[in-house]
Amino acid sequence: MLETKWPYRLLAPGPVPVPPLVLKAMGEKVLHHRTPEFEKILRETWAGLQFVFGTKQTVQILAGTGTSAMEAAVVNLLSPGDQALVVVAGKFGERWAEICTRYGIKVHRLDVPWGQPVKLEEFETFLKSHRAVKAVFSQVCETSTATVHPVQKMAQIVARDSSALFAVDAITAVGCMPLPMDEWNLDCVVAGSQKAFMIPTGLSFIALSEKAWRAQAQSRLPKFYLDLAAEKAANAKGDTHFSSPTPLVIGLHLVLEQMRKNGLNSVIERCQALASATREAGGALGLKTYSEAPSSSVTALVTPEGVNSAHVRDWLEKERNITIMGGQDHLKGKILRVGHMGYITNEDMKALIQALAEVLGKAESVQTALSVLTNRLQSVESLFP
Ligand SMILES: *Cc1c(COP(=O)(O)O)cnc(C)c1O
To answer: Residue 206's beta-bridge partner residues?
Structure first.
């Protein structure tokens, strides 16, 4: 870390800052994963995940980052030669397509311009012209463009017009926006620890619907570590198939306990408030919101003509010890991405806005931007003190 008088502020769309209480609990001891003490924690953690996912199905914990759960979705739902429809609206949509292609799945890409949500009529027409697809893959929030797709309606279209499974990468959605899996008829939901679950990187979560479990039993793509049926059998006995990263699970357990106590809405509202505060305060500094369907988990702000966002990002990092993200591919140098998940304090946000005003040469607007921010965040508490 930098030698600096500025405290470190992590405002990326994952990994996110971890509440101090949770960090402390994770550092207390390394429990063995096959002990009664850990089994109790595991069982409560699984129940907490079911609560956040809005499902009666088991939610599995994988010891791998979000991408491993995406790969698990593909290898557990499909067989060699199957066809899939993949929504590609940014970097993470590309990832679904790439995983499928590697496993020999025939991919039909529905390319959506970056920054735009899926258009439902186009989605419906595309699905109807590819009736043989076994599964539809999409993001809920495409993190690279900070855009949310209309997933509830997409799920209705999939159920009505096809027999396909609907699998969503909800890594920047579960726990920071409403996404009740069972109620919305989602067949596979994937999430990750370093996003709304506010613990470090390393775990991912996956849940399958009954229909998806039937497909799992038929699927013939190769899998060993990511065989969800084997994991499910172990989970049914209160165990995990392989070693469990117990400190991460202990942290997760604590976060889920707090989410249950405060209610999921309080976490979602905090993310929404941080997102609208960022859009409005950013606007006051001359930064436009990039996405046509902005997310509550991450915001992309467009830097003005002639201002390279990569320079802004580097300046924040070097001069203020604040980490945010820039844009990727053709958005490189054009946008700044600010995350709203995790243990983000109002002080963090103030520091960010002040620093942005400084680097953008907008001293005259900083008071307006800060009062917009304060108004938005005033009554919305963060999950942890
Ligand atoms: C963070 C993220 C991922 C997961 O990436 P990992 O680095 O494997 O954890 C996948 N999809 C989306 C939309 C994400 O935001």
So the answer is: 60, 190
- Counting from 1 in the atom list of ligand 1, the atom nearest the Cα of 14 is 1
Which residue has a Cα nearest atom 6 of ligand 1?
66
Q: Ligand 1 within 6 A of 278 CB? A: no
Query: Is residue 171 lining ligand 1, measured as CB closer than 6 Å?
Result: yes
Q: Cα–chain-centroid distance for residue 64?
A: 15
- The pTM is what? 0.97
- Tokens at 188, concatenated: 């596979």
Whether the CB-CB separation of 229 and 41 falls below 8 Å is answered with no
Torsion sign over Cα 283, 286, 291, 297: negative
Asked if the model's pLDDT at residue 2 lies above 70, the reply is no
Please, how many CA atoms are within 13 Å of residue 60, restricted to the half-sphere of its CB?
Answer: 31
Q: Is 172 in the pocket of ligand 1 (CB under 6 A)?
A: yes
List the residue whose alpha carbon is closest to atom 3 of ligand 1.
66
Question: Mind listing the pLDDT tens digit for each residue in 136-153?
Answer: 999 999 999 999 999 999
Number of Cβ within 10 Å of residue 301's Cβ equals 26
Measure Cα distances from 260 to 12, 182, 219 in Å: 25, 18, 35
Round to the nearest angstrom and report the end-to-end CA distance of the chain. Answer: 25
Check if the beta carbon of residue 73 is closer than 8 Å to that of residue 207. no
**Gyration radius from the chain CA atoms:** 21
Q: Is the CB of 290 under 6 A from ligand 1?
A: no
Query: What's the 256 CA to ligand 1 centre distance in angstroms?
Result: 20
Q: Using the 8-state DSSP alphabet, how is residue 363 labeled?
A: G
193-200 mean pLDDT: 98
Residue with tokens 């971890």: 18
Q: Give pLDDT, residue 384.
A: 87
